[in-house]
Amino acid sequence: MGAVGTVRAGRAVSAALLAGALITLAGCGSDDDKDDKKVGGATPPAGANASAPAADAKQLKGTVNVFAAASLTETFSALGRQFEAAHPGVTVKFNYLGSSALAASINQGAPADVFASADEKNMKLVTDAKNADGTPTAFAKNTLQIAVAPGNPKNIKSLADLKQNGLKVAQCAPQVPCGAAAKTALDASGVKFTPATLEQDVKAALTKLTLGEVDAALVYRTDVKAAGAKAVGVDFPESAQAVNTYPIVPLAKAPNADAAKAFVAFVLSEPGRTALTAAGFQAP
Amino acid sequence: MIEPPRVPHKERAVVRKRAVRPWARRTPAVRKRAAERSRRGGAPLALLVPGLIGLVFLVLPLVGLLIRAPWSDLGSQLGSTEVREALKLSLFTATVATGIVLVLGVPLAWLLARTDFPGRRLVRALVTLPLVLPPVVGGVALLLVLGRKGIVGEWLDDTFGYTLPFTTTGVIVAEAFVAMPFLVISVEGALRAADPRYEEAAATLGASRWTAFRRVTLPLIAPGVAAGAVLAWARALGEFGATITFAGNFPGKTQTMPLAVYLALETDPEAAIVLSLVLLAVSVLILAGLRERWMTTS
Predict the structure, then answer these.
(1) Residues of A in contact with B165 (CB under 8 A)
(2) Where are the domains of chain B?
(3) In chain A, where are the structural domains located?
């Protein structure tokens, strides 16, 4: 091969590397599809609760960014629409993730107004970092259930049934509240099995079940309820050992402090209570 | 009528040749001189400034990691079984995925560059699709096809009792899916830049197309293939979204370094930094080593 061949080959390499580098830039940073679920600008549902608290003396406006545990997705989205209906001019935006991920990003300076955690441990990370405005208030309790496919084809009745050979179970990673709760419940029961996967939040664990990839998932009772016809829940007595308390707090560096306080008050008010109970949460 | 100037026959041929191929006289010595001249002029500001900003933009975040890294923890982190398992799994799966990508991707690139068939443009667009697809969506797509209830996966499960999700093989599949386009694009570019006359010459000498590919084309595009393989390997090593969606997350089985970093970030950001540095250091070592061996041919 002569000089021409070598030069050509060299050029091809640099062209290929350049193309690759450009493409990498374009393709990255899209790993988190859940960052952006918003309820912005949604019209209130037909049966919007008319008994929502009357508008405060001072007019609230702007956007309120609520960082809420993944298990609150359905309830808080509905509450957000009611809050927007009661306060025209306010847009509620939600960031639903595992509480530990939310606590980490709040402590890294994410522009959040409200934090609703699925357990007290992750709330403590935020209060310890002096990022909370005041003391968090408990607003709900949640327990675990074994979510199984409709009709319970594998006939799962207890935690011990999860030990069946070849059965695939999705569990949350121990870092996130549902994973910590699952670990507590399993330790209390003495049942030991190897889950197929340790998911990064409770909705991811449930999705693996509704897609049919696993036979059971250890998730919150409220997530089973939110899945509707796609999953049924199996109660187990050990879940009483692992009850999660959900605290909520406006944040110290909230860009929209007034709206943050109003939203927290709304979640703690009667309509908030009603929506949480309807979703399967227990009173704190 | 004016007679054309009489030029000796031999010289006329040279004149014509020069007119058609102006580079014909550019001997290596001439070219070298020209290159030196352009280098002596220095880089124009219009290229130098954005170029340097680009460099800082790429390097600064890495410097940030280095500054914030808890160096004292490095030893204990490296010693932990979870990190060693994740690192081993990452290196293993990325390497196997690169092998698969090479075996399937080079022929695909050849088909795209050297054959003509209806809808080739569409096929090329489809090949590059995983590049723009958010990896999480890629993972869901893989589940819908290869998952237990997927179009192909259900058949796999019924026939062989084998399922891909939540297995190390599943990790490899996810990584190969996102990494393959990088190799195909590199190799196709190399093929287009390679002079097809070499292959034609081989054919006139009686070589079959397969022999010509093996003995002529492949050595010619080897640097392009190597570059593509390195890119694919690096992409596979850093793969996160498709892996966690398709293969799940379990230590020692499907928890690769990026997944371990993500979960560590939630509770222990310092550990996450250390893990990232370990991943970076290993990749830099390997990439630099490969570059020395493969990519300095020109």
Answers:
(1) 196, 208, 213
(2) 81-294
(3) 62-141+245-278, 144-241
Q: Which alpha helices (H) appear in chain A, and where do they start and end?
A: 3-27, 73-86, 99-107, 120-128, 177-189, 202-210, 221-226, 257-268, 270-278
pTM of the model: 0.73
| Position B146 pLDDT exceeds 50 | yes
In CATH, the architecture of A144-241 is 3-Layer(aba) Sandwich (3.40)
* Residue B292: band (very low, low, confident or very high) from pLDDT cuts 50, 70, 90: low
Whether residue A38 lies within 8 A of chain B, CB to CB, comes out as no
> For A62-141+245-278, CATH number?
3.40.190.10
Size of interface A-B (CB pairs under 8 A): 148
| Predicted complex ipTM exceeds 0.85 | no
Read off the pLDDT of residues A241-254 as tens digits, 9 standing for 90 and up: 889 999 999 999 99
Q: Show contacts of A120-127: CB within 8 Å, 24+ apart.
A: A120/A245, A120/A247, A121/A177, A121/A180, A122/A177, A123/A99, A123/A247, A123/A249, A125/A100, A126/A249, A126/A251, A127/A249
Chain A contact present for B271, CB below 8 A: no
Q: How confident is the model over A77-99, as pLDDT tens digits? A: 999 999 999 999 899 999 998 88
Mean pLDDT of A39-46: 40
- What residues of chain A, 156 to 175, have a C-beta less than 8 Å from chain B? 168, 170, 173, 175
Q: What's B81-294's CATH class?
A: mainly alpha
Q: Whole-angstrom Cα distance, residue A130 to residue B242?
A: 36
Contact between A202 and A71 (Cβ < 8 Å): yes
